[in-house]
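for the recovery benchmark. tokens below, seq after
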């Protein structure tokens, strides 16, 4: 009896200029080149996403969801056409990449309380998602975003902000002194649907790094304004925000999301594993060969690659043997530590060892050159990897 191989392809971005999703497609094409009779359903692809750029496209694609293009306000206060995603066929969960609508071209001065852009468009997208029947929304959070503390999001769903003269502030426009002008807040006009909708905020790796190294004194002026507005929210709306200074990270968007929505902030990678139903992908169809592509073993062993650690621990528990491709040859001690932790990984390959008649890339090489170089190396390396692929029935633990 012929036993069909079934591959579980898990990828992160191995080099700059090559996304996790494109890498998964490259590996899948390489498998088809070597095993020409393999069926599409026997190639399970899982590009790892974390809330950063590309998350919306990958999430909708992986769950067989759908896109809707809507008009929303960008960071500069101008109208733009932005994609809104719906996860799976039911459409009960929407997905929004906040950077797609409220991205700043350059980061703000972290010690300034000046508003540099508006997040109003994010609120418009949330409102559109709920109007389309979504009960919950995944927000991909990566920086730099418009730095209005997420108050633009709140304004788009009915929260009103007033200055000392009782004039309503227009948060759809970019107002540099916005935060300092707020003296009163009225949240009574929020629709009931917005009060019941749940937001799941997927914190990209960049946000997790910012949180790890954040100190409020780095953003002293911004912190002072957030603490002042938190007092106004308590007085006017009976909304309590514990430790408002902790929301001064990056754009401070978590401040507004915490104050006016039912929001849950999570590690983006592990949250999105749940959203794409990772456990179901792992078992139906039951894959028995694991192919992992990432930048380095150090990334996997460190806290920076928590998502990949979850995937490898799950495949290890299920008895799935596999191989890993990294960018550069790992140090002997790193390789030993990795194989001790993940015993079913039979081989680790490096793109840098792929046989090419070309000089190594210079340190100043562009992303385009790095991408082209990686594509050539994958083409040379994958046949060798697949030829050495262990069979699951031989390597499964008792």
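predicted aa per position
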């Amino acid at each position: 009896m012929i036993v069909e191989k079934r591959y579980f392809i898990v990828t992160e971005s191995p080099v700059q200029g090559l996304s996790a999703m494109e890498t998964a497609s490259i590996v899948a094409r390489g498998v088809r080149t070597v095993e020409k009779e393999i069926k599409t359903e026997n190639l399970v692809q899982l590009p790892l996403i974390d809330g950063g750029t590309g998350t919306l496209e990958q999430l909708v694609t992986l769950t067989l969801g759908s896109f809707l293009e809507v008009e929303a306000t960008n960071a500069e206060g101008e109208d733009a056409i932005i994609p809104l995603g719906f996860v799976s066929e039911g459409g009960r969960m929407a997905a929004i990449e906040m950077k797609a609508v409220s991205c700043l071209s350059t980061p703000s001065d972290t010690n300034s309380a000046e508003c540099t852009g508006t997040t109003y468009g994010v609120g418009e997208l949330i409102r559109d998602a709920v109007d389309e029947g979504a009960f919950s929304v995944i927000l991909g959070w990566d920086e730099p975003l418009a730095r209005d503390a997420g108050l633009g999001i709140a304004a788009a769903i009915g929260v009103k902000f007033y200055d000392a003269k009782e004039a309503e502030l227009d948060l759809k426009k970019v107002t540099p002194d916005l935060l300092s002008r707020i003296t009163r807040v009225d949240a009574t006009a929020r629709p009931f649907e917005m009060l019941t909708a749940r937001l799941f905020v997927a914190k990209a790796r960049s946000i997790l790094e910012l949180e790890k190294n954040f100190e409020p004194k780095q953003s002293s002026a911004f912190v002072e304004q957030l603490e002042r507005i938190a007092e106004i929210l308590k007085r006017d709306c009976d909304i309590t925000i514990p430790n408002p200074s902790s929301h001064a990270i990056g754009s401070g968007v978590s401040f507004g999301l915490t104050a006016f929505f039912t929001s849950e902030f999570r590690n983006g990678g592990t949250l999105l594993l749940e959203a794409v139903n990772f456990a179901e992908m792992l078992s139906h169809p039951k894959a028995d060969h694991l192919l992992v592509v990432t930048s380095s073993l150090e990334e996997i062993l460190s806290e920076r690659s928590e998502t990949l650690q979850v995937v490898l621990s799950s495949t290890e528990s299920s008895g799935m043997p596999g191989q890993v491709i990294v960018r550069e040859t790992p140090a002997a001690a790193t390789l030993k530590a990795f194989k001790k932790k993940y015993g079913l990984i039979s081989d680790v390959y490096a793109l840098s060892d792929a046989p090419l008649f070309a000089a190594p890339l210079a340190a100043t090489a562009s992303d385009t050159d790095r991408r082209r170089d990686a594509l050539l190396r994958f083409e040379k390396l994958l046949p060798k990897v697949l030829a050495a692929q262990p069979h699951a029935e031989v390597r499964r633990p008792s």
